Amino acid sequence: MTPLTTEVSPNRLLELVAKGIATERDEGLKGPFSTAPLDASTSLSSVPVMASGIDFSAMQDVKGSSKNFPKHETKHISEHKNIARCARFSPDGQYVATGSSDYSIKLFEVSKIKQIMGFDARDGPIRPVIRTFYDHAEPINDLDFHPQGTILISGAKDNTIKFFDFSKTVARKAFRVIQDTHNVRSVSFHPSGEFLLAGTDHPIPHLYDVNTFQCYLPSNFQNLNTNSAINQVRYSLSGSLYVTASKDGSVLLWDGATAQCVRQIVGAHGLTEATCASFTKDQRYVLSCGKDSTIKLWEVGTGRLVKQYLGAVHTQLRCQAVFNETEEFILSIDELNNEVVIWDALTAEKVARWHSNHVGVPRWIEHSPTEPAFVTCGIDRSVRYWKEIS
Question: Which of 177, 167, 172, 257 shows the shortest CA–CA distance to 210?
């Protein structure tokens, strides 16, 4: 019950818990996950560390001092048989996955993508898609990677969350399935990997224990003035908070330990849908995007609107707005002009507009958490990779 205005301390407890979990697995204390063991050796390096994010409060209305966004090159790296609906990078940036209306999931190895974009391509054909999974009966809505292992989860319109172990080269089907009661619109792993959130057509996020599949709802959810589907749910880096973006335009903040709603930003995007919401690395701010063609930055401690990023039209698709890896820039899509638009995060000024190179507007944009690279995918079924020109 720590007030949200309190300064967040380094997340030592989460580091200790993750270390203990890794040790247990290493000693062979196996639970329901034993058929797909996680790689304990990677757990310490992937424990989230509270980063020192950009101090937006120090430069409220600075103009004319925007940074230049580096030039990028782009390449078509694959395509689905139907609309490419979503994408997600692994926490270490080594993999990226895409989900489609053709019910498939493609997993790419980023190092191989870089090879086909560079001079190494002359050495022979390189296939960046290392796995393709077919196990859903409806379109894929969202994806996430386990923070400590080789597990990818997907949420889909068939009301399921499926677990895929991509360490197994021949596996094409899920090894675990959570059957929800609603269309699963969004999924997000807790940083410990022991819990996950599902945002669905139900107005309350569903919290699942990964090992038991027990579903939890907040005890006071009947008192919340919300009855709209959730478009996106995302944990903060520490797991102490999570955020939901809803079809009624609201953005809600939740306590990661008690699952209680601690702040409601009603009408964050007016009467239009809030299509995405995510935390800055220091979890002091939430970035949201809506079908009112606005991108907004909110202060977590007060719910105050800090910044607004204008100049890109997004009224039809479930548009995403994302930070680059340093949180100096924000990227999104302009549906009207089929462009990738970039803003300086501090000044809120547009610093670049690039044609997406897609035939039709991209539905999704996702930035790597570790390097200057991002992917776009969309209604033309294609997946494009963008990387900074060195």
Answer: 177
